[in-house]
């Protein structure tokens, strides 16, 4: 029980110090603090600071007598309940006493007073004070306990509500779940099950309660369930085959958890029927295999179509080009030019369709190989030299001086984008200027962001037509009287290639002023090196440039390997035009035989041939050659997929020419092999 044991203060107020000493002498042996004041004002200040059990107040005092002091004390909320005993020596009449009681006193002591009586009265007030404070403390404690009890009650009610809610939700989950949920003890006897048991196993609840869990899951065998093997996984899952009431088994995922209830271990088990999931996985696997077969078939079809179309086009365009180099009269030359232009237009359409098909089938990949940007631009411009001379257009190149010359990236795809955009500019610019520019946008430690732009002074594109430019098969003018031809795939292909290289493309145009296409791509940078050092690195990385230089004597021995007679004649004619004679083989086996009889410096090898294809022939020719005397082998292929390129390089080929083969490409290969083309053409 709590009892107040704090200080007990008694206030003594008298304007005579001797009287205060007398009071202190009487009350000094009481267990209290005696606080003395010489005036009413001083007493009020003490009352504001401390709490008192009783006040002994003199009536006759200067400035503020006892009655006025008592009235002020009673007017304060803090002190109005404090007992006041007046001490007086002047009057004993009733009116005087009435004034004192009216002012708030509860007792009177007349001087001279009896010490024992005064002491007894003060002790009484002290006991009342201690009792009051004790009651106050006990009341506060009771209030705190009541509040704590109320709070605990609220928490208990909330917990009870949450428990009821959780139990209701648990029941709802168990009753609506399609998975079987059960509990069993360490003895394996089933304690509870949910309604899904009947659907999954075919048993009613009463059929299994109290029975061993191995009746449903025979895989739980041996020992107590305290040491049951649940698969060794942290989640307590394993895949087993439970048994239904009819004896059939089915695949299931079993998950077990354990809890301690009344010092006994209880296991909670969830059985998930995996039959539908397994069926879905098998269907998904079958669909994946079907998709892979379809993808391979599509790839094979593209390869076949590319080969079957490019091979005759090689003869048409190649022979037409050679025909135009002969002496023809005006009509003959006009007809030959029509054949050449029509063939080139057809080839452009075919290339666009095949390229877009490659993109759609996901067969295009980025190849990171070193290249010289100025040389790439020069080779790109070479493709448009004749067209520029025949038209009233000037083709110009503006290069940022800060741009590095040696870069690493997919030069072939970069050149294809530039060719598409420049070709598009030629198509829509009847006269004026086409400017190609390259600018360094951001230069990192090992990577640079480079912006390429192709600007023309052509007819321009209406603003409402700009959003459809990069959509496949879309054209600005789709009317029956449209002036410009094409498949509408060139820009879509360019956009896909730019994004494949990690960049972005945009267009600005104004009708009657011109159009500017800009694309920005990231390219790796490399330190300036000598041509031979770069060439060696190119060879090590599979760079298609020929990584060999003419070693002393002029190379002259050439072998052409192709099963198509037209392609044989075309290739031989191109070589003859360049002043070079060559041997011919109709398949890889014949080529291998000829290579065993004579050391060839260059072999132009077709890829698809009967008896032995170009890849196998290349491997065998290189394997049968002496170290350091292997011929340079260049593929002649109608296939341009990255996988075909990889097969060529992995077989030991140094480069490949894509059909239809152009004379300029043959000249490039011969130059890299050490043939002095300029002297031959003189």
Automatic annotation (TrEMBL):
InterPro entries: CheY-like_superfamily (IPR011006), HATPase_C_sf (IPR036890), HATPase_dom (IPR003594), His_kinase_dom (IPR005467), HisK_dim/P_dom (IPR003661), HisK_dim/P_sf (IPR036097), PAS (IPR000014), PAS-like_dom_sf (IPR035965). The keyword Nucleotide-binding applies. Residues 135-162 form a coiled coil. At low DSF concentrations, interacts with RpfF. Pfam families: HATPase_c, HisKA, PAS_9, Response_reg. Its EC number is 2.7.13.3. GO terms for molecular function: ATP binding; phosphorelay sensor kinase activity. Residues 304-525 form the Histidine kinase domain. The keyword tRNA processing does not apply. The modification 4-aspartylphosphate is found at residues 58, 606. Residues 166-214 form the PAS domain. It catalyses: ATP + protein L-histidine = ADP + protein N-phospho-L-histidine. This is Circadian input-output histidine kinase CikA. NCBIfam families: sensory_box. Residues 9-126, 557-674 form the Response regulatory domain. Keywords: ATP-binding, Coiled coil, Kinase, Nucleotide-binding, Phosphoprotein, Transferase, Two-component regulatory system. In the N-terminal section; belongs to the phytochrome family.
């Amino acid at each position: 029980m709590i009892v107040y044991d704090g200080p007990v203060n008694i206030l003594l107020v008298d304007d005579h110090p001797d009287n205060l000493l007398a009071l202190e002498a009487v009350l000094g042996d009481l267990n209290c603090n005696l606080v003395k004041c010489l005036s009413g004002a001083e007493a009020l200040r003490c009352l504001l600071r401390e709490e008192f059990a009783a006040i002994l107040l003199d009536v006759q005092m200067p400035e503020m007598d006892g009655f006025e002091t008592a009235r002020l004390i009673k007017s304060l909320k803090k002190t109005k309940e404090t007992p006041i005993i007046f001490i007086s020596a002047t009057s004993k009449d009733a009116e005087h006493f009435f004034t004192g009681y009216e002012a708030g006193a509860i007792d009177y002591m007349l001087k001279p007073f009896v010490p024992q009586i005064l002491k007894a009265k003060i002790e009484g007030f002290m006991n009342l004070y201690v009792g009051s404070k004790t009651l106050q403390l006990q009341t506060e404690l009771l209030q705190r306990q009541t509040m704590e009890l109320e709070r605990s009650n609220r928490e208990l009610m909330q917990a009870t509500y949450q428990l009821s809610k959780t139990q209701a939700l648990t029941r709802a989950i168990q009753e609506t779940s399609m998975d079987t949920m059960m509990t069993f003890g360490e003895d394996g006897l089933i304690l509870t099950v949910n309604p899904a048991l009947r659907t999954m196993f075919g048993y009613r609840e009463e059929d299994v309660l109290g029975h061993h869990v191995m009746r449903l899951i025979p895989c739980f065998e041996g020992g107590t369930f305290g040491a049951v093997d649940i698969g060794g996984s942290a989640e307590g899952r394993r895949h087993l085959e439970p048994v239904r009431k009819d004896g059939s088994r089915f695949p299931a995922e079993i998950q077990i958890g354990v809890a301690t209830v009344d010092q006994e271990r209880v296991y909670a088990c969830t059985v998930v029927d995996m039959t539908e999931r397994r069926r879905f996985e098998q269907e998904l696997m079958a669909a994946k295999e079907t998709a892979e077969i379809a993808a391979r078939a599509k790839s094979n079809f593209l390869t076949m179509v590319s080969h079957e179309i490019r091979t005759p086009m090689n003869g048409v365009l190649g022979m037409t080009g050679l025909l135009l180099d002969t002496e023809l009269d005006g009509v003959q030359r006009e007809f030959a030019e029509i054949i050449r232009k029509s063939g080139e237009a057809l080839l452009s359409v075919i290339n666009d369709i095949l390229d877009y098909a490659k993109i759609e089938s996901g067969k295009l990949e980025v190849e990171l190989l070193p290249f010289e940007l100025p040389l790439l631009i020069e080779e790109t411009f070479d493709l448009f030299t004749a067209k520029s001379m025949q038209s009233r257009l000037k083709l110009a190149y503006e290069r940022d001086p800060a741009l590095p010359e040696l870069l690493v990236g997919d030069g072939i795809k970069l050149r294809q984008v530039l060719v598409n955009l420049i070709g598009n500019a030629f198509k829509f610019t009847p006269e004026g200027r086409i400017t190609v520019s390259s600018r360094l946008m951001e230069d990192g430690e090992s990577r640079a962001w480079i912006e390429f732009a192709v600007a023309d002074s052509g007819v321009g594109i209406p603003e409402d037509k700009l959003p459809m430019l990069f959509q496949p098969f879309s054209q600005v003018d789709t009317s029956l009287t449209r002036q410009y031809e094409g498949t509408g795939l060139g820009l879509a292909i360019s956009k896909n290639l730019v994004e494949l290289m990690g960049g972005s493309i945009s267009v600005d145009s104004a009708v009657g002023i011109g159009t500017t296409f800009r694309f920005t791509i990231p390219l790796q940078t490399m330190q300036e090196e000598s041509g031979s050092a770069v060439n060696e690195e190119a060879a090590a990385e599979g760079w298609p440039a020929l990584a060999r230089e003419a070693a002393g004597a002029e190379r002259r021995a050439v072998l052409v390997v192709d099963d198509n007679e037209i392609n044989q004649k075309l290739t031989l004619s191109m070589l003859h035009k360049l002043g070079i004679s060559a041997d011919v083989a109709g398949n890889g086996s014949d080529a291998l035989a000829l290579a065993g009889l004579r050391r060839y410096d260059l072999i132009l090898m077709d890829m698809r041939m009967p008896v032995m294809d170009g890849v196998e022939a290349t491997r065998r020719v290189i394997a049968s050659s002496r170290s350091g005397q292997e011929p340079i082998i260049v593929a002649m292929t109608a296939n341009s997929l990255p996988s075909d390129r990889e097969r060529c390089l992995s077989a030991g080929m140094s480069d490949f020419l894509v059909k239809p083969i152009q004379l300029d490409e043959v000249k490039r290969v011969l130059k890299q092999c050490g043939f002095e083309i300029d002297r031959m053409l003189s």
